[in-house]
Design brief:
Structural class: alpha/beta
Largest sheet: 7 strands, parallel
CATH architecture: 3-Layer(aba) Sandwich
CATH superfamily: P-loop containing nucleotide triphosphate hydrolases
Helix content: 25-40%
Strand order of the largest sheet: 3-2-4-1-5-6-7
Radius of gyration: 16 Å
Strand content: 15-25%
Distance between the termini: 9 Å
CATH topology: Rossmann fold
Shape: globular
Number of helices: 9
């Protein structure tokens, strides 16, 4: 069972979008997938509920309950944890317990970069991360690659203490599919396939950690 935590110290960075699309990918790939929602807004839980009738459902669990980990089915193959908004490194310990991977979404803005740099340097001091028990990957989200701001932000992200494992372009498509309980991996149009390609590096990296 591979456990993937998606968390950030910044709200509004696309954390739930990343968690739901990863869950959707693994479900489409035939993996028994659980999506645990530790955010009080409950967006991931609502997504999983909408997805229940699809051919590749994802089991949603509330990670706000103390016993949530005990409720994961024994045959689950992938567990995606949507962390709470604005979490601090010291608050991550319980969610990191047993996690194999931590994904940190980052936006290409000066404010977000500065806040994330502090968060990442504090993360590097956590015992499980320092001992190499948890693989940490950065996800550049909502990029506009044709802009100087996004290119400069990418250059800075590549100098951070953890690897940049994905570069996801900005599109309203994520908002539309998430509202339907779907992921971009549930579609096969040419436009959607171009955005699926953005995820290939991340998916390869996740498989290497399995």
């Amino acid at each position: 069972m591979q456990k993937i935590l998606v968390a950030s110290s910044k709200g509004g960075c696309g954390k739930t979008t990343i968690a739901t699309n990863i869950a959707g990918y693994f479900a489409q790939d035939g993996k028994r997938t659980v999506l645990a929602d530790a955010d009080r807004q409950g967006s991931s839980l609502r997504w999983a509920e909408k997805r229940a009738a699809l051919a590749a459902p994802v089991l949603g669990l509330s990670a706000l309950r103390r016993d949530w980990a005990d409720r994961i089915p024994a045959d689950a193959e992938r567990v995606i944890i949507d962390g709470p908004a604005g979490i601090r490194p010291g608050e991550l310990a319980e969610l990191l317990d047993g996690a194999d991977i931590l994904l940190v979404p980052m936006l290409p803005s000066r404010i977000d970069l500065e806040a994330s740099m502090v968060f990442l340097h504090e993360l590097a001091q956590l015992a499980r991360i320092r001992r190499g028990k948890v693989a940490v990957g950065l996800v550049a989200n909502r990029l506009k690659p044709w802009t100087t701001a996004s290119q400069e932000a990418l250059d800075e992200m590549k100098r951070l203490p953890f690897p940049l494992v994905a570069q996801l372009r900005d599109t309203q498509g994520y908002v539309l599919v998430t509202g339907l309980g779907k992921s971009i991996f549930d579609y096969h149009s040419e436009l959607i396939r171009s955005h699926q390609e953005d995820w290939e590096k991340l998916l390869r990296w996740l498989k290497k950690q399995a």
